[in-house]
Amino acid sequence: MTGVVVMGCEFPSGLLYDVGNHVWYAPRPDGTVTVGLTRVAVALADNRVFAFTPKRAGRPVERGKSCATIESSKWVGPARIAFDDKVAESAGNPYILPHTRQAILDAFRRAGIADCWGVDAIETHDCFTTSEYMAIDHFGLTAPGESWKAVEEGTIAMGGRLPITPSGGLIGAGHPVGATGARQLLDAWKQVTHTAGDFQVEGAKRVATLNLGGSGTTSCAFVVGV
Question: Which end of the chain is more exposed for a tag (fewer CB within 10 A), N or C?
Answer without folding.
Answer: N
